[in-house]
Amino acid sequence: MKLKDLVRPKPNEQILLIVRESLVPKSGKLFLFAVWFLVPFFFLYPLFRMGTIGSVIFTALVVSGIFLFWKTFRLWSHTLFVVTDYRLIDIDQRGFFDRVVTETTFDHIDEVSYRMQGMMSAVFGYGTITVRLHGEAADIVFESVRKPSRVQNLLNDLRKTIHA
Questions:
Q1: What is the pTM of this model?
Q2: Which of 31, 61, 91, 144 has a C-alpha 20 to 30 A away from that of 23?
Q3: Where, by residue number, does the polypeptide cross the bilayer (predicted)?
């Protein structure tokens, strides 16, 4: 699915920034799925000597490894944080048929903060952005953002231009 299918800009609206989650926190899971896919090839000969059962086991492991890797990649690629010159859009792809889209304008934002927690976060430079909204609206939280200070500065600058 393309970005234009996920985000439909309004007339005269420009997309300023598109942020995806960092792949670093997902690297362990992706490595596990890659190993899951590759291990059957090391046991190719013994599995095929088992006949039909071995072929079924080999095929099941390879296909499930490809599927799990693809599923993780698809969920990552369809989870976005989009900043335009008018609004902020948070697209959370939680499953194949489960997507939550949260949208707000800059005049509804009270505060933008970020948190970098842990050694991996500090070494690889990713953190969690939290956008606090007016009233009873739930906060927008986007995790594993690369260079979160850059995103925070952009959002605060856009808030200032709206309030000026």
A1: 0.81
A2: 61
A3: 30-47, 53-70
